[in-house]
Records
---
Amino acid sequence: MSEFLNPDFWAFVLVIAGIYSIFSLGLQLQFGFGGLLNFGQVGFSLVAAYTMAILVARYGVDLWLASVIAIGFSMVAGAVVAIPTLRLRAFYLGIVSLAMSEILRYLALNLQGLTGGPLGSPGINGPGHVAQYTNQWFLMLDSIRERLEPVLGAMATRDVATLLVVWIVAFALIGLLEILVRSPWGRALKAIREDEDAAAAMGKDVFMFKLQVFIVGAAIGGLAGIFLALQLSAFVANDFKPILTFYGFVIVILAGTARMAAVPIGGLVFAFIFAGTRFFTFAPFDVLSSAERSYVRLILIGVILILLMRFRPQGLFGRKEELML
Amino acid sequence: MQELIQLLANGVIVGSIIALGAIGITLVFGILDIGSFAHGDYMTFGAYGAFGAIAASGLPFPAALVVAALATALLGIFIDVAVLRWFQNKGPDSMIIVTLGVALILRHVIYFVAGSAPRAYPIDVTTVLDLGLIRISIVQLTVVVAAVVVIVITAWFLANTSLGKSMRAVADNRDLAAVAGVNIRRVRWSTWFVSSALAGVGGTLLALSQASFNPELGWTILLMLFTASILGGLRSAYGTLAGALIVGIAMETSTWSGFFGGLDGVYKPIIAFLILIGMLMIRPQGLFGKARLV
């Protein structure tokens, strides 16, 4: 029960909610607005996380610059997945994107010289010296914490500072995306989603629109990957399993497809189930081991997804007229 | 040279396991228009079904294989009736996401029941037959023989029985088949029965061919199943068989020392991925498929 009353625990849950919300905003753009089924979003997060960590830990690049370059790499990976598959049925994009994310994880696990291999990010500079990419991030968090201290007192921790940064970025991103989807570009995108042939007949280059939306979504996946890496302080390739992409879809469907501003609520609901239920360590829940509880949690997430799709496909906040599913 | 022949033989073994899973994907896609991301986990279910049968009642391996096939066949029908049927008339995206959800649930149910510890069948895997040019273990021989038998039975079933003919008729044109009096529900259930039973056998053989297996068994092979299925054009069982052999042989021979010194074995899945991407760019309808269906 002790965790239930610990503010840091709930700050952690909110940070998870924020990072997953950012991750899912990319999927919302691709799927909710573009009708594109990206099952490999976690691959773009992986690319960005490793690129950032390698640039910072091995080459001493500034964290901000490294993050920008890292997101660029995610966008290139997005183009590689999208170009061969966008002309085909949604199913093919799903397969290829999922496969690519698994291949990237596989490469990250095995290319020891580049990624640290099975050692994960601490092994980026080779075994023997522990590689770190978080110094600048922690300095920033500490300076935020110092400014919060007069207001929050003992509650001002690094976790609370992280929470602020993540959610400010998430809301800024939502603002940008709302502008984007209301722009002529966003309207063309919706037209393509509703009727590709009609949009093409109006002179819209369907392929280019889909490619652009996929690459922007991949960039957002990359941004989430950088936050995930910073939050974890050290990561391994297996922190980027396809299950994360699946969580993203659960959040998008909870929020309702084509509802950008509702994504954080999906993220909060998800984070409560996924991370917030970790304080259920008392009776009767303690009959299950911690591993068993994690399996039950995942089964529950799968069941919720299927029930939502069955009984409330527009999500908690979706509009029926924009129903995708 | 002998190394290459050995690798070709290994490729045929791997390919026949992939075929068992991929033919199921092809049948379900061709007949029911469902792209199932859960098929790998059906294979895992079969592998654990056989393991449970052997552990609980000491069944001999061939009998456990039959148990795995039947248990997975029933699972396939159950999941269709309990879940997938709801989504048949919604968009294709719904169905794909739901199968991914089914995969997640099934895998973690297996984790919950069987635990994450690696398992192995209580079978001697060390005996090796020396056939001159190639060396093949008893296990590998079992895998190939079982796979060939099952594939031949499936082919015979599809070609000669009235049910098999109905299934192919639905794959060709569902509405026409329905008008002609084909019992669509019967076809639907038999499709799931056949493709899930194949997955159960394939999963068990896959588990047998590895030193040990865990609940990720089938999920990790899913990409290879899709690659084989797409190579074959996604609608042809024979095309899928050919695709599976191509994928299996390509993955195994990539380690041949005559091929740029041979790739490290860990890169085999990447070979399958490159074949998939290359195929989709050059000929998305597959080696034997028709372009109008893509």
---
Amino acid sequence: MTEDTRAWWRDVELIPRDQMTWVRTYDEANDILKSPDFFSPLHYRHSYPVVGESIQSLFGETHSTRRRAELVVVSRAALVKYEFELVLPIVEEGLSVADSDGPRKVDLLDLVKTAVMRVAAAAIGLDDVTTPDEIELLSDIGDRVSNGVQVEWSLLPVDDVIAEALRAKAEFVERFYGPAKVRRVELLSSWRAGGVPDSALPHDVITSLLKADGDFDDDLLLRECLFWLSASTATTIHASAHVFMEIWNWLDAHPEDRPLFDDLAFLQRAVGEAMRLHPPIPAQLRCALRDLELTSGRRISKGEQIALDLNAIGRDRRVFGDDSDRFDPHRQGVSALHVYGVSFGQGAHACLGRRLAIGAGNGKVEGDVEPAGLIVRLMEVLLRQGATVDPDDPPTLRATSTQDRWARFPLVLCARDHQGVGS
Amino acid sequence: MRDEVGRTDMRGEIEPEFCIGSGCCEERDPDHFRLDENGIARWVEDGPPPDPEVLVDVARLCPQRAIIIKDGSGAQVAP
């Protein structure tokens, strides 16, 4: 994207969503998400000081360069480390804390939050995020930043949401980002002087970008870190609750599948299927950079603002079948590349955290040494513990967003270790 | 193209300087494409005989057009 394009967009307001061109078919969405002739119009106005020019809103060579620099953060080795050194021990510990007399209860959101915040801190390059207080603080900052990032979907006044996000940004700098960056600048200085080997450098966003460009603009680096924090906070936690609900209902209704509760390939397909029905955001917004025609024949004009309806696209019957509204982890005949549809995007802007959330293998993960995905591992542990939705304290959704965000998700652990749900 | 697609000695070549690790190749054909330790796609040399149509599909899916499919003679088949 050129400076001219950037300047053009800063002067143009997003039109109301009901006036945008809505795309609801998989094929058209696929065309648009893979095309270099569209860009995301978000984060150029209200949320610019929070996450402006972070990787999600970049295009062309600038995007490729940033993405390549950050790939090491989600490399296979990094994913294995996150899963086996952070996620699994944290979840097991969280469940053991709940191991007391009487019914064992745990809130799924709290459990996932701890694991996600530890992984996010490692991925971004934040130190000292280990105690419950530190995790809670980072999570709170991430929540407020995330509200700013997604201000277009908020039911609260825009100015209030952005002001709160900027306060969270300042706290993030003081408590986490500032000290972490100082340490990494010193480490990289030693590395450049030949004092430390390449293998001593951590594989995180701060280090990777400073290593690629020692003069990386500080506020831009900070905004990139805030984007990673927001992406971690806003997606995985709530997605995990949706996924658990779908799988739990399925196993309850299909006792023949209960022995599959620890089959990672089955769970990976189930997680993908649930993500298809519950995309992390309701829509992706795009703007056309030129006049063009989609494969379907639909004509798009330069500057046309487009909303990709992810809920409708994930239910496109021509791609996912006549029963596309239903959750079916054994779904066959899907012509889409991914079982999750376009819930993690497509093409060059496919979500960098996708493999972190649902692993590699696309439903074919084998053995227990491959990265199966944070959510997949979480489901396996919860089902092994016989977790069920608490019938006396059902999950509730937040009232401050048009998105399906959970407020609480209490679980009861039924001590059915090694037998699975409902057995 | 169809005659060429029918060959079984096809292989993928990746231009690593263009790869951005989207993972489309690994997800479409995990037997023949794998993201390495740096997140860059690599051709799996010891994979089973490839399905030519799948290989062509992989080349089409790559958002960076960083994957070239060649036949046994080294001629480019896709994209």
---
Amino acid sequence: MAVESKRKGVVGENVPKVDGISLACGRPKFTMDMDFPGALIGRILYSPHAHAEIVSIDASEAERVPGVACVLHFGNVPRIPFTTAGQGWPEPSPYDTVLFDRKVRYVGDRVAAVAAETEEAAEEALRLIKVEYKALPAVFTTDAALAPGAPVIHDEPDAEGIYEAQRNIAAAVDVPIGDLEEGFSESDAIVEATCELPFSQHCTLEPHCVIAYFDEDGRLVIRSSTQVPFHVRRIVSRLLGLPMERIRVVKPRIGGGFGSKQEVLLEPVAAALALRTGRAVRMFLTREEVLVSTRTIQPAWVRVKLGAKRDGTLHAVELEATLNAGAYGAHSGTTLYNVGSKSLPLYNKARHVRFHGKAVYTNLPVSGAYRGYGANQGFLALEVGMDMLAEKLGMDPLELRLKNHIQPGETSPIFERLGEGREGKPQIVRSCALEECLKVGAERIGWYEKRRNRRREGTWAYGVGLACAMQGSGITGVDMGAATILMNEDGSFRLLVGATDLGTGSDTVLAQIAAEVLGVPVERISVYSSDTDFTPFDKGAYASSTTYVSGNAVLKAAQEVKGQILEVASEILGDQVGELALQEGKVVSGRSGRAVELWEVGHRAAYVANQRQIGATASFLCPESPPPFAAFFCEVAVDTETGVVRVERFVVAADCGVAIHPKLAEGQLEGAVVQGIGQALLEELRFSERGSCVNRTFFDYRIPTAADVPEIETILVPTEEPTGPFGAKSVAEVGIDGPVPAISNAIHHAVGVRLTQAPFTPERVLKALRER
Amino acid sequence: MTDANLKIYFELNGEEQYVEIEPGESLLSLLRSLGMKSVKEGCGTGECGACTVLLDGRAVRSCITFAAKVRGRKVTTVEGLGTVDNPHPLQEAFVKAGAVQCGYCTPGMILTSYALLSRNPNPTAKEVRSYLVGNLCRCTGYKKIVEAVLVAAEWKREGKWR
């Protein structure tokens, strides 16, 4: 029972990702990798209309297809308004959705679901469901939806929580601080910009999928590719009328999330099909279904107006946002608030601030949670605006940022006035290395040199641009995560966390936090996560919360377990607990120098004397949301003949506190930056005149490939966040907030035109060049 | 299973297979039914590369390859490259470099990289990037994947591959 006592896996080290080698070896770890012989195939019938009433639905012929077990539609499923958003309780998104409705609100909306023995039988049944639609007038832009006399998209009487259904407004916000008019009248320089971010998609490589079945005790098990297993359990329980103790939700490995799998889309359908048939049901969406019918980013129109004093001090800031919520309001209000709450505190010198906006229903796909979650929409406008302001003031854009950004020990009234879909909480920024991020990033890109000497080669013009951003770490006062640590009798440990590793590496990061406290290598800790039967509650993976919130829970649990270990060791050694130290796999007495190995502690507690389970469960409620900060620099080349923009180099310097696992932290930034580059140059879901998505494959909807990606330099600038576990803050989202404005600003430096409508396609760049 | 089903013989990860396939069945579907769950479906239309396998050493997309096409040929999936206890250097390199995030694209990436390195044991970063153009990854931004392939190539040149 010898235990390796050399401490390896600890905070700040690039230990092997705990699931890395099994993933690289292709072990069957994902939702669909488990075979359920005899499972039914679940498929969904989608609306071909952007807005229509279902006059009648006749599934009798479909039900007669051999092998078809069940067809669900509004006629045979209880009507319970809910939201698919997959948020905590009380849910901030409006209850404007039901499982199957009498009305469809976008092309791709859910009409019916089928469970059948084979794909072919399911397909055949979908073809044979007779639906009579009465088409209604549809609106696709927020302007059209807000116009007087526009069709009302949510006219159902049982919806709850919609801001103003009659005017198609899902959510609205207006927060004035100081006196904006006075602020602008006192300003020496004023600029105004309007930026747009279109519909785009997360594009996780693994499509949405789920298996629902009944176990040997008749309990419903939902094996799902989800970011929020506990919210899935709560929502399915309510929709199906099954008590929570009869539902188990398991998240195996998941092939990417980025917000798209926070939405509880397939689980209630698969569960309802399983409940109706008593059989296991598998659902696996095609890429086309993912692109057309799941969820998108919140497309935004954002206007910024900045007023500054002659010396560059910001004095007045107005930010106005209109989000296209699409057909349902999931995440619209909370994302809307975040456009202001996550961006405006960055420049806290302005005394007069107003943030206002709305999220508007249209008959387009549903926009939901997407990495960045409003911050990227806000920073697009704010950072383009800052670039314009610098130009107007004749200042270096870098100097303007340095002059205005928030500093450690400072606050912003925004923290208190704006939360997620409601008021926020006051907060002081305790750690911030944005200044260093800006300085080191500028040095790495060659900022001053390249700003002075613009390069031109043939038709290619080169330029450099920058942007800054911040995010949060969890939702203050809302997000709770818990962890259980149990010691085995050989001195190894089990770490059970509700936290949901989406591929981010959070299982590894959480194991490192436990290992650091318990003085063992990461290999001595087995991590089991995201199973509502076996792991304690966790809000799930969203809002950049796992390292900070769940990590703090692990820290607390590990400290309690450490205390118990010292007690048992004191029984063995006869020393007082206060004289003992836990290090490198053993407990050492500071008095006698004698040591007891961890296995002896575990063994004694299990078998020898005063037997008990060494273990603890601890939870952590997000007390504040310390922002990570990042500075983004890029060099672009613009072909003035074709309008093609090439990102030549990208530098991201980020302060995420202490990086528990630097390589994983870098990976978060690099992935987010490339996703942002996709948004800047490539990605846009396009729609026909009838509101039907036209780019439904990866061939038409391009995301960055390895060949599209520039050289990226990632720099972690450490700070120590006093409230974070071992000084850590979040890192998952901040990296997507900067690329779009940084690229826009670099294009401006290269060719003197402002691109404000993403993506910056050759057509748009050429048009801007011609209109110059 | 109907009369139209076809029996084929092929080699999968060094083992002989004699299996019945359905008309029009994809290689992806056949391999997953044989337990090769590393072969992932990401798009079903040959655009993402998650289903990449080696067919006689060449990287192919199994979702748009007919199962019938592998008759008498050799198919390699990532399961055939190495195991958790005895991983292939490429698999180790991916983990070491931090090239594995969610892991869904990883088997396809590794096999495409394997095909590249068997052709070109000393690629530049740019060559790696262009060779991997058919394998999409949404998590990593590709940087650490390219680093992993370059490290594995170095190990190969040093004779550390088996």
---
Amino acid sequence: MNLSIFSFPVNLIVGLVLLGAGALIPLIGTRKHLAIALALFALMCMVQGLVPMQMQFNRSIPFIVALLWLLFVLSSFVFHYPMSHGKGAFLIYAGLLVSLLSGGLGACDAYKVQTMAWRSEFSSVHPMPFSIRLENFRMETFPTGEPMNYTAVLTAQSHNEDKTQHKFTLQVNHPVTIEKHQIYLQGYDTQKGSDTPYCTLLVTYQPWRWLIFSGILIMLCGALVMFLRGLISSKKRLLP
Amino acid sequence: MNWNHFIGFAVVAVICWVMGSLRALLDTKSPSKGASWAYCSGIVVYCAFIIGFWISLKRPPLRTMGETRLWYSLFMALSGMLTYRIWKYRWILSFSTLMASVFICINLLKPEIHSQSLMPALQSPWFIPHVTLYMFSYALFACTFLLVVGSWIWPSLEIENALHNLCTTGLAFFTIGMLLGAIWAKEAWGSFWSWDPKETWAAITWITFLIYLLLNDAAEDETSFAKKRKQLRLLLVLGFLFLQICWYGINYLPNAAGSIHNYA
């Protein structure tokens, strides 16, 4: 399914409508409804986990419907959550709501492209707003010959009128942000090692990533609270 | 200090841990001081090796697969000790000793693994917490499964509190492991979540245990909750099965070849 029909501002409106509906309809936010919605979503995940990834089941209509239904029930559950049921669990559900909502709806605005940076010239892939050239490539290997670490020095040239240039260094696990895009080092010509004529890069644009990240942080806090509360309640609930 | 010294330190540490675990099981008081002292001595001995190894390597011993397993065992023993001191569960020390020993044995039995390198993507501070927290939650979930099986054999077995505690702690660890993985995935692969088979099955496992806790708490409000709770235990069995798929079962699924979690 083409997700571009949901791109900004449609996704923002859908998100607000889901949250508003959840806030206004307390009846749907019961634990049983949430369990059913979660089970339905898990069922969709199972299909996703069994079919080849290329089928992109996670972008199919049944998957998206199950996700939207879960978001609706989850928002109602979160808005009408009785705090006596545990703050840790509340934070987990609230964080899940924030990260699923921003991850699911934000996916409509995000893109991810793979591109190659050559030593000889600047190159780019649509819709990147800049082109990239490889300046230098260094690699260290283990005694066994396997790569231990590799570093690429690159220059990005903006597509705007000024053709602004940014010089930066990339390593695996250390992405760099240029013009709101994150650039990741993925690979190189393994036959040539340090003399590789190119390196492969992943360029992502994910404007909702901070919202997803805050959802993750809320869930992390929830899990910590859940663990600590477990410690306290375990004093009351001793094992036989 | 090198790998050849490992066996000496490991044997002493495991003996201390076994003594601590036995003392914890037999002592009338919980937590027992004797058990804690024995267990902590094991941790100190084990730590001494890691520090010595670190100094002689002139870099943190976190690079090769064998070196990371070294840390698994340490964390396993440490979390077991903390859980024992705070929760006072007698059995937890035996359990963490078993888990720690498994990793030590793999290091001793497969010495060739020490020379294997760690690919650049795995060289991240997230690697250890991501994997160790998962391993500990796997262990706790396995324990809930064993308790449910036990309750089928001996129907009078009282396991409700244990199931609730183990499942809550297991889910807390699983959640943290999964979320640290998501943050790491953003750094390494460009997205928090990419519906990779391993991630997908982790999500299914997570949801199953979450549903168990959700419905188990709901059942508490109902009059027929004892019967309902027994039915709910099937969810724990199901969750345990999904966990096995997530852990190693995915290697036998048709779509596993495309998994970015494939480091074999």
